[in-house]
Amino acid sequence: MKSEILRLLKENDTYISGQQLCEQFHVSRTAVWKVIEQLKREGYQIEAVRNKGYRLIDSPDVMSRAEIESLMKTAWAGKNVIYYDEIDSTNNRAKEYGEKGSPHGMLFVADKQVAGKGRRGRSWESPAGSSIYMTILLHPEILPTKAPQLTLVMAMAVADGIQKMTGLETKIKWPNDIVVNGKKICGILTEMSTEIDYINYVVIGVGVNVNQETFPAEIQSTATSLKIELGETVRRSGLIAAVMASFEQYYEVFMKTEDLSGLRDRYNSMLVNLDQEVKVLEPGHEYEAHALGINRTGELIVRTPDGEEKEIYAGEVSVRGVYGYV
Fold it and tell me: Mind listing the pLDDT tens digit for each residue in 168-196?
């Protein structure tokens, strides 16, 4: 009820009467008043006028289940939100729910992580009050070998969501780093539980630097935030909803062919490496090549100086710009 009352307040510029809310949700006026008071304590500015009702004046950067669900306009992606003020890792919690058979599209969001994870077991800096840490739980009916492509699907959705919310030109550094003005703004980590030819579940974790103003010295040259680039605070819950809307659309396209053939042109249009000279870093070996874009399964196609075209597989191989991060 709290999410739905908040949604109604956001969708209406005029007052909504307490009686209307009582009748719609089959509850007492006291129950409605208690919800309104909860929302006020969370930071919402709500005007209450006798014989008129309630009107939402302002929504701050609130992170809560009610706030996120009130903004969600998807059919299934993020429709069911589990929210934590603090947690070890949203991926860990999503995997626990995955083991229980929880529904496709469930979204786990935290204001702070104390054990955030990046690729190859690296830790992910996860302070409170400024970033997005979220994980979606999926049950795709595809072969396990195809699941890693979903990481690229999410990368597209994050880039889309950021661009729609902020207007910033947002790019992807292959395979799934999101960059703005040449600096990393988001990391994505996909994990899964599988049998030989069957997926039990997939979880895709997303960490977005939203309103941070500073970064540790060791990553200042390669990391940034939306607030730094935009010069103003970005509402995190709205961005979460925007990313989920794009992800749902892209996921449906992916599932039709079970590969990236229907999304390849769109992904390549976002690829910061496209038609650029890159450095391919393989274990014990590195070389320069020209990036040509991805194929239908998400590998990066590069042309070496001798004219050979090679497929680069994500994992232990890293691709960077010749002169820096991108």
Answer: 999 999 999 999 999 999 999 999 999 98
